[in-house]
Design goal:
The structure is a homodimer. Chain A is α/β, with parallel strands linked by helices. The first copy, chain A, contains twelve helices and seven strands. A seven-stranded mixed beta sheet of chain A has the order 3-4-2-5-1-6-7, with helices on both faces. The first copy, chain A, is globular. The first copy, chain A, starts with a strand and ends with a helix. Bound molecules: adenosine-5'-triphosphate (ATP) (2 copies) and magnesium ion (MG) (2 copies).
């Protein structure tokens, strides 16, 4: 059976895309076939892996609106064996409004994934910074949600709103939705606030906080400008090591092969 | 006449709220009466200025849906003379869906501001990280849009999408919408990428880029946890000085008193 994990947090700029891209690529490098779904109209995960988003192409929008099927739309990611991507395109900006009056509007992604003749062992979904229909589709399709938490004040404040939404989705749309974990991101050990947020998150979430903490590491913010994951841009960096650790934790936890 | 400036960028975490809060407070400290409108359901601008967002209270949602008037909803900001805020509350998460079928849904904020018996010399609007109806309402109500640009790769990529939306709004909803300027944020002089993004932005936008650059400064990320603007948390910091400079530039440019 395929494991579907969505990377969500309505707070902007907390490391959702950086986590989706580098976790998916990390899993692929460990030999686990992975599909990355880019559900953000900004299409950062798509461009961050070297796929030109200015070229009009069919992608996530067409899968959501039922105009084409995921297995025909997914693309191989350049230089990364075992990794395919359902690319995003700015046409996704219109999908939320177009879906508002559609039948079963929250289940479009779940149904599109269910129609796929075959899926790899794991699917990772990158979400936009909002709680609109795109993120709701991801939370409804997923088995679990991985929550990147930037070690800053505003990011911690937003968590309770996200958990309220997760509970609502679990009650009304997806009873099996669980929290894969809270991943601390952009952690700068020299910064007091980061330690305060990290302590507070562990007090709140206990064991749900991943042991691995993603450090603030400039190589992570450079790699998308080369269209590569951190593992192909700078394998020896602290950012690459941290995301490999998270990938390995998921492989062990879910027995991925 | 009142000048209405919205702080917008659909890319998440680029410094919209930090700019809205510290620019509004900076203007107020210079003696210019200012209204800050928090149009983000995350309500970060509201909590960043020390107003409890967990307490149910009427605010921006009620103004948008025409249930109450801005002059009754706006609150004084603790310890900051000359500054009032139209607070946000998580109920704003529902406003976008509720407005979809409403008459003149894009003009709700513009009309609410027009109904106010009196407005201060300047209104600053903080927007969520999306191009949905909340941001569209802000762009339709505003005379100009100030674009915070984080000095990172993904942030620069998103600018063309934002400018496309601004042109669309100018053509269809608000012919007088101009670009107040592009403000470089979280600039870390030690980081190559920051210089590359800054050079690229100046090549693209020329004189529209503010001369003042907001440095990456940990004091800016600490101040919201104390419910204060940077000017009241650490007046001597580089972050405070930079936002005071931007405030003064706006005062001179628009003859604010
Ligand atoms: N650990 C890290 N160290 C340094 N920079 C990072 C790190 N993680 C992410 N970044 C950078 O911070 C910025 C925000 O990260 P990212 O775009 O992944 O967040 P996001 O949550 O996906 O944003 P959005 O809400 O817009 O979708 C990006 O420019 C990214 O390159
Ligand atoms: N110049 C700066 N130096 C250091 N930290 C900063 C700076 N500007 C903003 N920050 C911090 O970076 C994070 C993102 O900033 P902020 O929340 O203002 O962005 P935003 O664009 O409003 O985010 P969102 O898209 O979620 O609304 C916050 O934790 C903030 O405290
Ligand atoms: Mg993203
Ligand atoms: Mg904000």
């Amino acid at each position: 059976a395929t494991r579907i994990v969505c990377i969500a947090n309505q707070k902007g700029g907390v490391g959702k895309t950086t986590t989706a891209v580098n976790l998916a690529a990390g899993l692929a490098i460990e030999g686990v076939r992975t599909l990355l779904v880019d559900l953000d109209p900004q299409a950062n995960a798509t461009s961050g892996l070297g796929i030109d988003t200015k070229v009009p192409r069919r992608g996530a929008y067409h899968a959501l609106l039922g105009m084409d099927e995921i297995h025909r739309l997914a693309l191989p990611v350049p230089e990364v064996e075992n990794l395919t991507i359902l690319p995003a395109h700015p046409d996704l900006f219109g999908a939320e409004v177009e879906l508002v009056d559609a039948i079963a509007r929250e289940f479009r992604l779940k149904e599109a994934l269910a129609r796929a003749p075959s899926l790899p062992p794991i699917v990772i979904i990158d979400c936009p910074p909002s709680l609109g229909l795109l993120t709701i589709n991801a939370l409804t399709a997923a088995h679990s949600v991985l929550i990147p938490l930037q070690c800053e004040y505003y990011a911690l404040e937003g968590i309770s709103q996200l958990l309220t939404t997760v509970q609502l989705i679990r009650r009304r749309l997806n009873p099996s939705l669980s929290v894969e974990g809270v991943l601390l991101t952009m952690f700068d050990a020299r910064n007091n606030l980061a330690h305060q947020v990290s302590d507070e998150a562990r007090r709140h979430f206990g064991a749900e906080v991943f042991e691995t903490v993603i450090p603030r590491n400039v190589r992570l913010s450079e790699s998308p400008s080369f269209g590569r994951s951190i593992h192909h841009y700078d394998r020896a960096s602290r950012g690459a090591a941290a995301y490999r650790e998270v990938a390995r934790a998921l492989i062990v936890r879910h027995g991925l092969q």
